[in-house]
Design brief:
This protein is mainly α. It has one domain. The protein is globular, with a radius of gyration of 13 Å. The N and C termini lie far apart (about 40 Å).
């Protein structure tokens, strides 16, 4: 209230929280990347964050996003997930 909304700044804060394992932020980033709100539209990054949210113990459907993606893009998202997970071990 009383403060102008800045969706790009919100995306930066969501990324910070998501990188720390916040599942809600990971899921929200999926939506931001899927719709291009505050970030460039990027279905690969959207899939990555949604996959990470699911991996974190929460079940969210990847079907909505995967239907609009090529197998190559889904594979790239998987590579990004594996790289991210490697930094957490």
């Amino acid at each position: 209230m009383g403060v102008a909304q800045d969706i790009a700044e919100a995306a930066q804060w969501m990324r910070r929280a998501a990188r720390q394992g916040n599942v809600g932020a990971q899921y929200f980033l999926d939506t931001m990347y899927f719709t291009g709100q505050g970030v460039d539209e990027d279905p690969v990054r959207a899939h990555m964050w949604l996959d990470l949210a699911a991996w974190s113990g929460h079940i969210y459907t990847l079907t909505r996003l995967a239907k609009s993606m090529t197998p190559e893009k889904i594979g790239k998202a998987g590579e990004l997930v594996a790289a991210w997970k490697a930094t957490k071990d």
